Amino acid sequence: MLFLKQIRAYGFKSFAEPTNLDFTHDMIGVVGPNGSGKSNITDAIRWALGEQSAKSLRGGNLDDVVFAGSVNKPALDQAEVTLVFDNQKDRFSTVDSPIVEITRRFNKKTRDSEFLINGQKAKMRDVQDIALETGLTKSSIAIISQGTISTFAEAKPEQRREIFDEAAGVAKYKKRKRETTIKLLKAMENLSRLEDINNEIGRRLPNLEKSAKKALQYREAIEELQKYELAILAKDVKTFKFRIDELHEQRNIFEEKVKKLSNEINFSEEEFAQMIEQNSSSEKSLTELNAKFNEYVQRISNLKVKKIDAENRENLQDKNSSQDEIKIKQIKKQFDQAKISLQTEKDRQYKLNNRIIELKEKYDYLSNEYNNTYDEIQSLTKTKYRLQNEKEVNENGNRNSTSFGPSFGVQAIIKQSNTLKGVIGTLLSLVTVQEKFQTAISVVASASMQSLVMETSQDVKNAVEFLKRNVAGRATFLPLDTLNPSSIQGPQRTAIEAFEGFVGFANDLASIDNKYRKALDYALGTIIVVKDYDSAVALAKSMNYKFNIVTLEGERILPHGAIIGGKSKSQNIFGDVKPVNSLEDIEKTLIQLDIKEKELNQKLNDLKIERDRIRDELADVQSSIRSSQQSVESLKISMKEFSEDYRIIAGKNLLETEQNSFSNESESIKITREISKLESERDEVQVQINSLSSNKNKYADRQIELNQTNSIKRKELDKDKEELASIRAELAVIQEKNVRSLQKLAESYGITEQTVLEMEIPEFENEQEVRERIIFLTTQIKDIGPVNIDSIVEYEAEKERFDYYSIQTKEIHEAAEKLQTIIKDIDIAMETQFKKVVDDVNLALPEAFQKLFGGGTAKLIYTQPDNILETGIDIEVNPPGKKISNLNLLSGGEKSLVALSVLFSILKARPLPLVILDEAEAPLDPANVERFAKYVKLFTEETQFIIVTHREGTMENCDVLFGVTMEAKGVTKIVKIKLIDAKALAVQDPDNQ
After folding, report:
1. Most exposed among 27, 284, 571, 578, judged by the fewest C-beta atoms under 10 Å?
2. Which strands form 423-426's sheet, in the order they lie side by side?
3. For residue 37, which phi and psi values (nearest 5 degrees)?
4. Contact, 45 vs 32, CB < 8 A?
5. Is the pLDDT of residue 759 over 80?
6. What is the tens place of the pLDDT at every residue in 847-864?
7. Per the annotation, does 786 bind a ligand?
């Protein structure tokens, strides 16, 4: 039967060139001298079918399967072998194809190794399964070598059993049993682990259930409280909002009326005062103007006389100088030009000096502005830092508070102060404040006073972990070892302390033990307390609204000018009720500070640019002054030279003459201009006299009219002020309530005013009962105390895990039982098939033994008949004319015949599609070789034989021979040859290959 149709090899061992072996017959001989590579064909088949042992392939490691090179042939990097099988009888049940090609490649450089089945990549396990299915495995009789024959007879019974396992198909059952046993072990391991986990969960569940029930009760109370409280607060806010809007509208109307009436009255009073003043001023002005008018007349007359004298002097001077005019004309012209230039330069110097004064003043102003702006930015940065700290403190300390007293978190820490290390107490509990300062400090520090003073930051860490662990709320902590208080220092502090109305800095107005002073300074160090509202406004304005200022009555001015005022019943935290500050003012102030900081930085940059420009211009002007001064000195020298020339020619001093002429001419012109000016002023005085006289009587009439109008308006103003005060008082009360409600909504529910106003609010049949229910739930929540709200989810998760693992445990128990059943079934199947194969071989063995020995008897026996799964196989043989008690007493040839008779009996009992005999008959004498070859021929109907041989008797019985030679040393070449050529090859001297 033809099963293996072709072998293709390239790079495998001595196959240095692509080599194809096409098998067309059932009994094929492979012949050739020793060392020519005959056995490499067998190795190629085994390697392609997944053999991993380098030793089994007659090598040291996997690299040895790749052609290593020869004298004339370089080494190759890759080995590849392909086996082509006929699968028309479906011997490979896992491959649906009439032809099955199995390929294996290995690259020793990249270490890449791959298997292909019909050109598709496959796993080595798939190829090994195919080999197992067809019996082509290492321990089966499909590949029988001389070593297999020689060791079979001498092998221990347990080792000999392996061949029968393969023949019985037990190998696949053993593989399945191994896999099933591994699964069973893993299942039992998983089962043990699951039982441990479930036992641990089971121990924890009761406590978790108890904690979860308490947390559930707490959560249900909280949810019910939130449902009612949210609705009531939202309703209150809407009601307050509606009333606030009404009051705002009314207040705006009355404020506008009051403002309008006040402005009208003030304007009338100012006008009335002006009328009185103007009337008195008119009388005085008329007297002064009449005297002034007479003075102007006298001065004009005197100036006219002076003008005549000046003109006479100028005419006389012109006559005296006329004779010299021609001679000195040229010199005088030059002198005049120099004089004009000199005056021009002096005028230029005057303007430049004025410009220098202006630039210096502007530079000094800009430098001062720059420094002030820089200081303001520094102060603003400190204020932002302080407010951000204050905001963080308020957020941490008040977010979970349900009232104006200590938050749940603070209360929880105080309750645990006996077990928690480093708890000193709230800042409020450590501070003493005089009654007159309590309102002021309460307004600005209600939140920070509820902060917990702690010894160290490590103590704070432990307290925070406690709050987290018990979901007990939040708290603000002041660790004494890390606090870094800030305060107002330097000139600003000096100026504040000298300000009228200044009472003190808040931290100085409270008493505390010195070892806790850092906490007090941190909370109050930058807060200024003043006497009253007016003092606060004045101080804030003088300090450019940089600081937090509070009055003794509780009015508060925040940095950047925001003002908080009014009064509430819970204003004093040192009494029974301790209010908590809202974060709204701080957040708004921080936004304003950010905007202000950007504006100041821009202003600072602009000032620097302008100051630098002024400085550059100042340098340019100073340079121009120096240049002009040089020009003036040069012109003066030129004028002296011209004057000297004039003196030589005319005998006169040109400078003196010119100065006198200029002086007289200037006096005449000046007198004329003065006369004109005085005449104009005289005429203006006359017009004023006429105007004052005509308007004087009007002022008295207007005074009477204004008096009557103001009397009526004052009565109306007083009435409107009373109404406005009433509106403001009601508005303050409503706003106070609204702020508290909004604070509660924001802190407890994270809801803004806008969201509240858009909410649909449920209607309650009895609102009073709902409000009483809120009080009851609040008390109930406090009574429940700290809970671990996560325990609800944790319990549900653990319960779910417990149930899940319980199911898993049960399923694994069932799976383990099934696996144990499978193993038992496998053992039964292996035992049944093994016994069947041994029985079948025992039936065939006598015939095979007699054919190979020419007579005698042989029988297989169990070494452990009661333990078929572990028994070894022994052979009882009696060759013709002999009785043997031990196989070792047989000759080498006889041992080979015994082994062959058993192997052929197995083959008869369980036919294989392919058997490879690699010099299996080598130990036999020629007669037995002939008998062996003829006996093999009997099996070719069901089995294909590939026989590697150098025995003539075997060659003669083969259908076709493949000759294996090494024409080039180290490189195998294969050719089909005739029988006579095979004989010649078989007797060649190996040394001449």
Report:
1. 284
2. 423-426, 452-454, 477-479
3. 105, 20
4. no
5. no
6. 988 988 888 899 999 999
7. no
Which residue has tokens 């300074």?
A: 521
Element (H, E) at 257: helix 170-321
Residue 582's pLDDT is what? 46
CA angle 811, 816, 817 (to 5 degrees): 100
Strand partners, 884: none
Annotated ligand binding at 156? The verdict is no
| Predicted confidence (pLDDT) per residue in 235-281, tens digit | 788 788 888 888 888 888 888 888 888 888 888 877 777 777 777 77
At 718, the amino acid letter reads D
Lookup: tokens for 18: 């692509």
Q: Return d(Cα 3, Cα 214) in angstroms, integer.
A: 79
| Unique residue bearing structure tokens 């069901």 | 942
Is 33 flagged in the annotation as binding?
Answer: yes
Bridge-based pairing state of the strands 477-479 and 452-454:
parallel
34 has binding-site annotation? yes
Sign, CA torsion 504/506/512/517: negative
Contact 531, 361 (CB under 8 A): no
211: which 2 tokens? Answer: 């904690």
The tokens for 331 are: 């010199």
Torsion over CA of 951, 955, 957 and 959, rounded to 10 degrees?
160
HEC-encoded secondary structure of 885-915: CCHHHCCHHHHHHHHHHHHHHHHHHCCCCEE
The residue among 736, 385, 345, 816 whose CA lies nearest residue 568 is: 736
For residue 28, which of 958, 966, 928 has the smallest C-alpha distance?
958
Name residues whose C-beta falls within 8 Å of residue 141's C-beta, 6 or more positions apart in sequence.
Answer: 135, 148, 163, 166, 167, 903, 906, 907, 912, 915
Alpha-carbon distance of 598 to 614, in angstroms, equals 24
Among 482-486, 501-505, 672-676, 689-693, which range has the highest average pLDDT?
501-505
Average pLDDT value for residue range 315-332: 59
With tokens 């930058």, the residue in question is 526
- Chain segment 339-379, per-residue pLDDT in tens: 677 677 777 767 777 777 877 777 777 777 777 777 777 67
Q: For residues 554 and 529, what is the distance between their CA atoms, to the nearest angstrom?
A: 9
Distance CA 96, CA 90 (A): 8
Asked if 477 contacts 452 with a C-beta cutoff of 8 angstroms, the reply is yes
Cα–Cα distance, 29 to 960 (Å, whole number): 6
59 is in an annotated binding site: no
Cβ proximity of 622 and 402 under 8 Å? no
| Residues 6+ away with beta carbon under 8 Å from 358 | none
Closest CA to 424 of 453, 459, 447: 453
Of residues 981 and 880, the one with the higher pLDDT is 880
Pair 536, 550: CB distance under 8 Å: yes
Q: Is 918 exposed, middle or buried (0-12, 13-18, 19+ CB in 10 A)?
A: buried
Q: Binding residue per annotation — 5?
A: no
In this structure, are residues 668 and 310 in contact, taking their beta carbons and an 8 Å threshold?
yes
Cα 413 from Cα 472, distance rounded (Å) = 9
Alpha-helical segments (H) within 750-789: 753-758, 767-784
Tell me the CA distances in angstroms from 959 to 8, 24, 852, 911, 927, one per residue in order: 21, 9, 21, 20, 20
Asked if 27 contacts 107 with a C-beta cutoff of 8 angstroms, the reply is: no
- Other Cβ atoms closer than 10 A to 479: 20
What pTM was computed for the model?
0.42
**Distance (Å, rounded) from C-alpha 604 to C-alpha 157?**
104
List domains and CATH numbers for the chain: 327-397+582-651 (1.10.287.1490), 402-579 (3.30.70.1620)
- CA 422 remoteness from chain centre: 35
Place of tokens 């809007």: 245
Residue 114 dihedral angles phi and psi, to the nearest 5°: -145, 155
Q: Are 408 and 611 in contact (CB under 8 A)?
A: no
**β partners of residue 353:** none
